[in-house]
Amino acid sequence: MARRIRPPSPLRVRAGERLRVRLINASAEHTHVIRLAGHRLSVTHTDGNPLVRPVEVDTLPIAPSERYDVLVTAGQPGAWFLYCAAPGHAAAGEQALVVYEGREGVKPEAPAEGVFGLSAWQYGLGRGRAVLPRPSCQERSFDLTLGGGMMGSEVWTINGKQYDDRNLVHLALMLLSSVQFGQLKSRTIQSCLGNCTDFQSIIATLATSQLGKER
Ligand SMILES: [Cu+2]
């Protein structure tokens, strides 16, 4: 923790309400372990993508840049801390008081460090829900062999070929599209583009379709 932060004003809730809480870890390097004392967190979305079904946990570790949506049922009238259970974090200010209407005078339990005995979110617990339409055309597979970087060279290649800046934009679109059209495997992108015969035409076609033009 670089410095102590000032806790925000108490969050007011009403008994029986269902709250949607959107959490973003905007730090560069800390995983924060979020907990609302006395309540379970029902994880519904990861990075904005819906899960097949919500996952109920006591704590939610959030890595840098991750986003989560959770639902909380306000069924424990009182005053509770929403806080980070990572050692030292709540004491450094990562805490907000959640107060039920009519329970303003209640003294909350102090935030407890650690997650011993508590269930924690982990990636294996959730499965993403398909939100995009299934491809209507024939599936094809393309093997893309990546080179460079950790492979020992500063020259980044795909199937031994370099791409200029313009193509990098197309490549980014293609990687986005690969999520839409199939599964991005370690070195294989499955695509449904029936007329593509080589990598260059995949990029061009996907870029076109991503931009909403007729293909
Ligand atoms: Cu933290």
Most strands sheet: 5 strands, mixed
Percentage of residues in helical conformation: 10-25%
Compressed to H and E, one letter per element, the order equals EEEEEEEEEEEEHEH
Strand fraction equals: 25-35%
Distance between the termini: 51 Å
Helix and strand composition category: alpha+beta
Q: Which CATH top level class of the largest domain fits?
A: Mainly Beta
Quaternary class: single chain
Question: And the CATH topology of the largest domain?
Answer: Immunoglobulin-like
CATH homologous superfamily (4th level) name of the largest domain: Cupredoxins -  blue copper proteins
What is the gyration radius calculated from CA atoms?
23 Å
Uncertain stretches of 5 or more adjacent residues: 179-197, 209-215
Number of separate domains? 2
Written overview of the protein:
A hairpin with a 3-residue loop joins β11 and β12. The C terminus is likely disordered. This protein has a 5-stranded mixed β-sheet with strand order 1-9-8-3-6, with no helix packed on it. A 4-stranded antiparallel β-sheet has the order 2-7-4-5, with no helix packed on it. It folds into 2 domains: 115 residues, Sandwich (Immunoglobulin-like), CATH 2.60.40; 71 residues, no CATH class. With 215 residues, it is an alpha+beta fold. α1 crosses α2. Helices cover 13% and strands 33% of the residues. The chain is built from 2 helices and 13 strands, in the order ββββββββββββαβα. The protein binds copper (II) ion (CU). Copper (II) ion (CU) binds next to loops.
